[in-house]
Each structure stands twice: as C-alpha cells, then as structure tokens.
C-alpha cells in the first residue's frame, strides 16, 4: 500500500487526518515521557472531508500532483497541488466488482490517477458491487487503498474491466486495481451470469468509456506490498473488505503468513446461517471457493461475516429508488437507477423476490459504522466435502462443538441508517462530478467558512462523556490559549503536527499559567465544524482523551491556513490555571 505525503512549498501534511499524543510527567525528574509513544489516529470523518487523489506517474512527467478534498456537506471541494504520501484512514480491501459499460462523464478531463490501496471486491451480485465500491471510495471515514478482482459471476477479465469502469464513472480513477485469481484455490471456476448478465454488470444503458490499465503483477504481491508498507511506516493495521470469494485473501495469508498481524479484520459479505442462494444451504461467495473461506476462517485473523439473513433485509424498493432519483436528473443518477432496475428484474425471475437485496454495500457499511449492526461471536466452519452442502457456513449458535469462536456474525442491521449511508455516497459522487464540471481548477481559490464555537465544542465532548457516565470537563482559559496557539502554528506552517516551537506540552501549559501532572492533546485538519471535528477525533486512540476520567480541564483552538484548510487542536489536563 502506498501512502502519500502532501508537501509542496506551502504545505506538508506529515500525517493523515488526526493524531494524538498522550504524555505523563515523570514524578521523579519532572521530564516528559511518552505514555504510549506517538499515536496516529486515522479517524472517522463524518460530514467533513473526504480525500481523493490524482497521482501522476513519476516516470511520465514532473507535473504537480493533485489531491482533491470533497466535503459531504455540499460543494466544499478544493485542491491541493502537491506530492503524495500519507492519506490513510482505515484501509479497505475488496475483491471483484463487475461493471460493463459505464456512463459518459461528460465533464471530466482525462487524468492519470493512481492512489495505491487494496480493496478486494469479489462478489456474486455484481450490480451491488458497484454500489459497494462507491461507498468505499466516497465515505470520508475510509481511505480506499485499492481493488483486487477475482473470478465470480463472470471471468476475472470481465470483473477487472468492470471495476475499472465503475471507478471511472464514479469519479474514483485514482484507485488502483489489480487483477486477482482467475480460479478458486482447488476447484474450477463457477461462472454464473444469470443475475448480472453476460458482462457482469448489464443494464439498459450501454456504457463505453476508456479506462486506465490495471496494475501489473500478481494481486497477492501487490496487496502484500501495500499493506506491509503502511504497517511499517505508520503501525496501522488494514481492514480487508471482501464481497466475493475469499480466494485472494486466502492466498495472501498462505504465501505471506506474517501479514496477519498487519490485518485489523476481514469483513465479508457472504455465508448463511440457514438457507443459501446457490444451493439449499450454501451462499454463492463461499460456495465458489469454500477451501479459501475455510483457510481464512481458521487463520486467526478477526473475521466479520455479514450473511444472507442480514443482506436480504436491505431491499431496494420503490422508496429507495425514488430517493436516488431525487438526488438529481443526471446521467450518473440515471445509470444508478438503471443498474438497480436490471438487477431487480433478473432477481425477480431467478428468486421470485419483488425487490432485490443490495448485498455487498452492507459489508462496507459495517466498516463505516459497526454500531448499526448487532453481531454474535460464534464458531463457524465451512463444509468442503459434502456433495449436498459444500460451501455451507456451519454456525454453531449453541456452542455445541466447544471449539474456539472464530467469526463475528452479523444478525441484525438498522436498515434505515444503512440506506442513509448509501444515499449519502451517491449524493457525494454527484457533488464531485458537479464541482469538476462547474468549477474545475477555480476550486483552488475556494475558501469555506468554519463553524467553530468553543462552548459548543466543549458540549459535544461532554455529551460523549455523559454517555459513559464520566464527569464533564471544565473549560480552561489556559488550555484554550495553548490550543489556539498550536492551531495557529499548524495553520501558518500548513502542517498537521504535535510538535511546537514553544516546546513540549508541559512547557506550553506552564507558560500559559497552568500546572498539571497529566496532559494530552489531539490534532486534526480538514473538518469545517465542531461536530465534524469531534466525530473525526472520536476514534481510538483520540477517543481516550475525551472519555478519560484522568482529565478535568479542556481547551480547543482552530485556525484556517492560507488556502482555507482548518487546523484543530484539543488540549486536556488535570491541572488548574494559576492566579497571577
């Protein structure tokens, strides 16, 4: 996985989105020491800023690269001209998506975009794969590192073309795609075009666009390179999202077993607790390569499984289609609707269901917001030998086998919140396309107003503490001064950092008139509101500041840089301002 640094003559983002340092004072010598080393938090950025990047190949020219930030809230898009390194939030990997021809994006110039990541999308339902990719690429809490494809409803050659086209028409050309396994680990490929058509992503709209080429090389080698690099440089683990067979993931674990410690989890759409969709008890993604699923389930890596019982609740009815149509009367929206209509017609023919389930985006939704799901930790084994039930995910609900539990199985989902996430991602793509068409490079000069209020910011933090029954923080004028000074420094240098020319954290609060034995800070950039920043920092380890009973005092500061980027600093301590 590649990370990219944002640095040009005016800007050098040496971290991603937010970072936290936590220190305690050594009581014996009064020196500062790291409590936990430096924490880098790649936080969920709700309603704030999403990161896009256009990467020019160094071997081709020396032109400036472009990183585009697109806000969920509307036309809050602008560009940074700089080199890349480092915009990582949570990784994702998927495997296989199928998209035949895509819409004409009449407004966009051709740009070579290579933002290296892994996102494996290997799913049977190729139309829902397209929507899963849109959610991955346009939800600001995720940094889509790439896509590896795999054989599924169609050949891997077709699924690779489809993935490239999906990224093209949904303003995601920066995402790297690599062709993965063309057959299961030990079985022959099972091609199943009945639902998604001969292309893997049929619709009444013929979409024909030129795309960039997939990355060269073997998928597992590319996946290992990207994941290992991120882990080596940042210490951050990767989340793999798999919406097709687990062939690529199983081969990755087999060839590079050391990578397991670099994986936070594998979140997959697949399996069934009861009835299957390709056999009496087998679900398609698992049945395509049950040996691969078995290898992953027994790997020791955390597995999250969203089965058919949950995905069959996410039905695309007329109400959802109407919501999508109301986003805008554009070719992109028309394409989304036509894809869903084709999917619905075939699903009704095959399964007799009036409305088709949108399977794959649920796996993405679990990574974005796991709180909308209820899961159970179960023992799950994969049947690989029986002619009657091979591909079955045998869920030991009553723990009768006494074997170690190995899979977190989703059993419920808040459907309304799930569709809110889906609609939001579609709306944001349309916003990006509109901005590209309307403003182009004029967005360089677009500076947005920041909604910043110290008292409101404190209330948002204390609301989080109240939910945990932790006493509220009190506003400290000393810490507000320190936080504002550091925000000013970051904005002036256009750099997200915990370092400050005024010294360490204890030095700074002492100069401001406060004595404390514990102090911590969190910094972030890119959010245009108090709520967005608190949400951005409300992830581990920055969340530890907000809900720590150690701290009693709070301060916050914000300053926009010359190009309009908001830089935020929170300060926490257990001290008191001294009367001078």
Question: How does this model look, in words?
Answer:
The protein is of the alpha+beta class and 580 residues long. It folds into two domains: 127-441, Inosine-uridine Nucleoside N-ribohydrolase, Chain A (Alpha-Beta Complex), CATH 3.90.245; 454-573, 3-Layer(aba) Sandwich (Pathogenesis-related Protein p14a). Helix content is 31%, strand content 20%. It has helices spanning 126-138, 156-169, 219-234, 247-255, 284-288, 290-297, 308-311, 318-325, 331-351, 361-368, 415-438, 454-467, 477-493, 505-511, 530-537, 542-546; strands at residues 4-7, 12-13, 18-25, 32-41, 49-54, 66-71, 78-81, 83-85, 147-148, 177-178, 238-242, 263-269, 303-306, 373-382, 393-396, 407-413, 474-475, 514-515, 518-525, 553-560, 566-573, 576-577. A hairpin with a 6-residue loop joins strand 3 (18-25) and strand 4. This is N-D-ribosylpurine ribohydrolase. Residues 1-34 are annotated as: Disordered.
Q: Measured on Cα atoms, how large is the radius of gyration?
A: 24 Å
Average pLDDT level: 74
Shape: globular
Please tell me the total number of domains. Answer: 2
- Provide the β-strand percentage band: 15-25%
CATH superfamily of the largest domain: Ribonucleoside hydrolase-like
Write the CATH architecture name of the largest domain: Alpha-Beta Complex
Low-confidence spans: pLDDT under 50, at least 5 residues? 1-127, 193-197, 199-206, 441-447
Please state the structural category: alpha+beta
Q: Class of the largest domain, according to the CATH hierarchy?
A: Alpha Beta
Number of helices: 16
Protein name: N-D-ribosylpurine ribohydrolase
Pfam family, one: IU_nuc_hydro
Domain SCP: 458-570
Family: Belongs to the IUNH family.
